[in-house]
Automatic annotation (TrEMBL):
<dbReference type="InterPro" id="IPR035897">
    <property type="entry name" value="Toll_tir_struct_dom_sf"/>
</dbReference>
<protein>
    <recommendedName>
        <fullName>SAM domain-containing protein</fullName>
    </recommendedName>
</protein>
<dbReference type="InterPro" id="IPR013761">
    <property type="entry name" value="SAM/pointed_sf"/>
</dbReference>
């Protein structure tokens, strides 16, 4: 078990072995200090708040924490360090979909393969937990340039797609949503906020072939040469719109996040996706925020 996942009881055993005096251990227990909170403690806090007045004991505790983290990094697979540095290759795409949507995923995959794309999806083995699932699919996704998300009633609530989408956002991959079903209000609020401003292709009100052609045009904009008719190019540009725009227009719904009104009285919807990185110890704000309101 990683130090950040240690319980308050684990911490008590740990600081006892290090030689922390009983009065300080009682304060740790009273404040329910677990592994995550211990990692956030500074030496001054150990002295001021936990009454660890012996400098040698404080340094021993800090040194033991550092050694524990070092051992973890030596024994656990650290795939994300190299994966984060990997540059996605052109014409490499990763499709995110729920296993029950395999049929439409195959249609999209086969179409893109015919267009000379290399197509990747999640591993057939899901792993025993979230960490194994992400470790299996992370290095593969890192090699791709674009990520395609098939939005259906199943995928909008799927745990697997949730992990893959947040992983794609962490990799800073451009995500395009294939809008297959009216499920805007059924989506996880965090995923709705994450995808709201990303482009989407409406597969509901067009034929499958036409929708796939538009998706192809988005992935390879260079195919729209100057020889293409202007009305055709304009139609393609109008068809590829932010997911929130397509979902709201098709369903005549107002998104749940609070909205502000501009001078003309029209609503200017803002969406925000927030995540906290334990590695960099900072908040990651993906989209611009003018005003954050909890609803």
């Amino acid at each position: 078990k990683q130090l950040c996942s240690w319980t308050a009881k684990d911490i008590q055993s740990f600081i006892t072995r290090v030689g922390v005096q009983q009065s300080s251990r009682d304060i740790f227990a009273e404040k329910q200090i677990d592994g995550y909170l211990l990692l956030a403690c500074t030496e001054n806090e150990l002295k001021d708040y936990f009454q660890m007045n012996n400098r040698k004991v404080r340094q021993m505790l800090i040194e033991n924490v550092i050694q524990t983290i070092h051992r973890e990094r030596q024994t656990l697979p650290q795939w994300h360090y190299e994966a984060k540095k990997t540059k996605g290759k052109n014409d490499y795409v990763y499709i995110i979909y729920d296993p029950e949507d395999h049929s439409i995923a195959s249609e999209v995959s086969n179409f893109l393969k015919d267009k000379k794309f290399r197509v990747f999806t999640h591993n057939i083995r899901y792993g025993k937990n979230k960490h194994e699932f992400v470790a299996l699919n992370g290095p593969v996704m890192a090699r791709t340039k674009d990520v395609i998300f098939l939005l259906t009633a199943k995928s909008c609530r799927s745990t697997f797609t949730f992990h893959e989408l947040t992983l794609a956002e962490w990799f800073e991959k451009p995500i395009v949503t294939v809008y297959l079903e009216h499920v805007w209000t059924n989506m996880r609020s965090s995923i709705r906020a994450l995808l709201a401003d990303y482009p989407s292709v409406d597969f509901i009100h067009q034929s499958l072939h036409e929708s796939l052609t538009i998706l192809h045009a988005y992935l390879r904009p260079q195919m729209l040469s100057s020889e293409e008719p202007d009305d055709y190019v304009q139609k393609l540009k109008q068809t590829i719109r932010p997911l929130a725009s397509i979902a709201t227009y098709n369903s005549n719904l107002k998104p749940k996040p609070s909205c502000s009104t501009n001078e003309n009285g029209s609503a200017n919807h803002r969406f925000v996706y927030l995540s906290y990185s334990k590695t960099s110890e900072k908040w990651n704000v993906i989209h611009a925020v003018e005003r954050l309101i909890f609803v």
